[in-house]
Amino acid sequence: MSETIKTDAVIIGAGPVGLFAIFELGLLDMKAHLIDILDKPGGQCAELYPEKPIYDIPGMPEVSGQKLTDQLMEQAAPFDPTFHFNRMVTGLEKIDDKTWRVTTDEDEVFEAPVVVIAAGGGSFQPKKPPIHEIDVYEQADTSNGLGVHYAVRKMEAFKDQDILISGGGDSALDWVLNLQPIAKSMTLVHRRDVFRAAPDSVNKMRALVDEGKVNLHIGQITELVGENGQLSGAHLKPAEGDPIEINCTSFLPFFGLTMKLGPISDWGLNLNENLIEVDTEKFATDQDGIYAIGDINTYPGKLKLILSGFHEAALMAHHAFKRVHPDQKLTFQYTTSSTSLQKKLGVN
Ligand SMILES: Cc1cc2nc3c(=O)[nH]c(=O)nc-3n(C[C@H](O)[C@H](O)[C@H](O)COP(=O)(O)OP(=O)(O)OC[C@H]3O[C@@H](n4cnc5c(N)ncnc54)[C@H](O)[C@@H]3O)c2cc1C
Fold first, then answer.
1. Of 57, 200, 206, 225, which is the most exposed, with the fewest CB atoms less than 10 Å away?
2. Residue 284 C-alpha to ligand 1 middle, in angstroms?
3. Domains of the chain
4. 207-209-214 Cα angle (round to 5)
């Protein structure tokens, strides 16, 4: 276990609502650490529809999912949040009446009086390819590149490996390009010779194929080969011709992501059809100090809209203040007229 990180608020999920929560907490002098299983902020906006326009954010007649994420990051910047990407929050336990402990699958430990669950539809998790007994070769240890991995957390783990990557989107192509220089060999398999990834990445990949640095096969991986859980190869059914065996010690399938509630269901919170029940006064759960905002919560009349999550973040922060600063009086202030708020924002 790494050294415990102590902070005012741990925010689970860096989607639009988690990002706005940094701002609302920050205005009231509460520091936040955010944890997300994705490798970037923005949640559904950045992962599912970065280029699609959103038309119902107040004051923004049209904004793309990525642009909204960028603007929320800019708005949160004065409060200097700390982001922990590429890790899933796995544990939430009460230490005492004032403290919650949050743990991740990277063995980090956080302690805070306030935990804000802004986990949307749950954590984004990889879709697995339909390969019989693939789980035999799956690796939980992210420092070791051997076997099957659905994400690259440490590039160094894949040094000098015979790497097989499967998929035709941005993740597959990005990792072909990034890992090829350190790999012993690099093979890319995709079911057709058309790639959804950015054209520049596709061009770079094809140039590496022409130089003999990447082996490209059109077809499907049907089976993995190895002994005692040690991967040594994969069977490929090509689009044309006879099946072949590809030599590989690491297999990285990139078949997209799906949203799953994940460990949140084990934390003893009041759930209603996989959503966390909250009150509408403070967006608190039935556990003191645990709040749920955005798509993950439910209450009478809930609308799963980004603007609802923003409102919920503001009310959550006003209540959370009392847990973090029990001896201080909270005065309601406007950002337009309060010099103290403007100082915190760095505009005065
Ligand atoms: C195609 C599409 C179009 C949409 N259009 C609109 C629109 O026009 N207007 C509108 O208001 N809304 C729209 N929505 C809905 C909107 O995107 C959601 O309401 C919004 O993203 C919810 O934000 P959130 O921060 O609550 O959750 P999310 O955006 O879902 O973010 C939650 C984050 O939490 C992370 N997470 C969850 N569990 C864990 C865990 N255990 N450990 C680590 N990380 C975890 C996830 O990986 C994710 O990044 C649209 C949705 C889709 C799919």
1. 200
2. 19
3. 5-124+258-344 (3.50.50.60), 128-255 (3.50.50.60)
4. 125
